[in-house]
Amino acid sequence: MDKVDVGKKILSENEKYAFENIIFLAEQKKLCLNMISSPGSGKTTILARTINGLRGKIRIGVIEGDIQTDIDAERIRATEAPVLQINTEGACHLSATQISEALKKLPVADLDLIFIENVGNLVCPSAFDLGESAKVVVLSVAEGDDKPAKYPAIFAKSKVLLVNKIDLLAGGHVDFDLERAKADARRLNKAIEIFPISAKTGEGMDLWCDWLLGSVQKGIAQQ
Amino acid sequence: MDKVDVGKKILSENEKYAFENIIFLAEQKKLCLNMISSPGSGKTTILARTINGLRGKIRIGVIEGDIQTDIDAERIRATEAPVLQINTEGACHLSATQISEALKKLPVADLDLIFIENVGNLVCPSAFDLGESAKVVVLSVAEGDDKPAKYPAIFAKSKVLLVNKIDLLAGGHVDFDLERAKADARRLNKAIEIFPISAKTGEGMDLWCDWLLGSVQKGIAQQ
Asked: CA distances (Å), B7 to each of A6, A10, A119, A123, in order?
């Protein structure tokens, strides 16, 4: 058995559970977004602010993926949203099997939208579908505008790109050409929705929250 | 063959080449540092500034690992240092086999120090030894001070931690407790050398360059 066969076998095991998750979410009519980024791009801060921004409008639950610790889950719990922690114990991505288990434990019937916060890694999670409705990639301006070109897979596969920490642009504290990043992302993925935001100051969060509200109301496939 | 066996087999193939690289580097009396971080922590900017700072003192060569593109290699070439590009074509880490090939192509005899810039990924590269003399982990303050706690493996295994982009601390543009990050890294790795730097402004780069100079002169094992 060579390495390629092994890789295929692990991926196809994942695909089987991903397909089960797709069916489950479709039957339950729930939207599920798989949020992927490097460590420290601001996924948890975005989620907490999104949950607070949509309070009373959308019921949100979160599956938190981390290698170790429950630091992020604690931050989500502070918003009072239901949260389920998965520790991968060293593994570099969440698997569809883990999500299948998590969906059984979350109060899915009481939710409109489930966010999966994947392990901080811009590479591996892009190769493992979890049965999500769509992927959301987060890029912080502190990471540089060349990231869509250098890490194309996740930008090609995502429905939404959140360009976070734009508060750092105003003072010229980081070198980041927003138009270059947008153009490179659109070259990989013509239909990608791009929201420049600052989860710290709240700038741009209203457009992102409106998009989520529309997606829950209409179903993401209709967008 | 279950997943654990498969993982072990791939790792042991890597270990075989890593051992060959260790022998080769020891025979040639060359220092080789494997630089690991998330995408956008500033590895390439640090390398370019390090090469320029040590010009005339240490002869540096670079092995550039990227998933795609040769953007980083071009930036290193501008310093006139010898550089060898490896494109992993989607893979999330460099392998010892790739480094073995690269070491045959670089003018190793003319160099004192070889940097390996690994694929931007704080997780997977920590599991694949390349036969390097030591690992250097880079953490940008924009990523947050909780990263040593959340991604412990690479902090536990590294000889050096470079805390980059400290220029963002002065104006309070990011929330990052340097003492917390240091304490968490030292809890995982008592002997880790920590250099707060800004590759953009040059702050702290002299201490890092002095450490490199000492390491090349004395051999890293004697430090």
From this structure: 10, 11, 20, 18
Whether B162 maps to a domain, the answer reads yes
Round to whole Å and give the CA distance between A29 and A6.
34
How far apart are the C-alpha atoms of B88 and B104, rounded to whole Å? 18
- Is A39 in contact with B150 (Cβ distance < 8 A)? yes
Beta bridge partner(s), residue B62: B83, B115
Q: Tokens standing for B18? A: 């890593």
In the predicted structure, residue B139 carries a pLDDT above the cut 70: yes
What ipTM goes with this model?
0.86
Residue B190 is assigned to a structural domain of this protein: yes
**What's the Cα-to-Cα distance from A74 to each of A40, A90, A136, A196, B183, rounded to whole Å?**
16, 20, 22, 26, 21
For chain B, the domain total comes to: 1
B205-218 and B43-53 helices, crossing angle to 10°: 70
Residue-wise pLDDT tens digits, A110-161: 999 999 999 999 999 999 999 999 999 999 999 999 999 999 999 999 999 9
Tokens linked to A53: 């921004």
CA atoms within 13 A on the CB side of A113: 28
In a domain, B223, yes or no: no
Q: Under an 8 A CB cutoff, do A168 and B165 touch?
A: no
- In order along its 223 residues, chain A shows pLDDT tens digits of 445 566 667 668 899 999 999 999 999 999 999 999 999 999 999 999 999 999 999 999 999 999 999 999 999 999 999 999 999 999 999 999 999 999 999 999 999 999 999 999 999 999 999 999 999 999 999 999 999 999 999 999 999 999 999 999 988 889 999 999 999 999 999 999 999 999 999 999 999 999 999 999 987 654 4
The two tokens of residue B129 are 């030894």
| Three-point CA angle B69, B75, B80, nearest 5° | 125
Assess contact for B59 and B132: CB atoms under 8 A: no
- Give domain status of residue A222, yes or no: no
CA A92 remoteness from chain centre: 15
What is the residue range of A58's domain? 3-217
- What's the CATH code of the domain at A130? 3.40.50.300
**Considering only CB atoms, which residues of chain B are within 8 Å of chain A?**
1, 3, 6, 10, 38-41, 66-69, 71-72, 90, 92, 119-124, 127, 140, 142-144, 146-147, 149-153, 165, 167-168, 171, 173-174
Q: What are phi and psi of A91, to 5 degrees?
A: -70, 150
Q: How far is B70 from chain A (nearest CA, A)?
A: 9
Q: What pLDDT does A223 receive?
A: 46
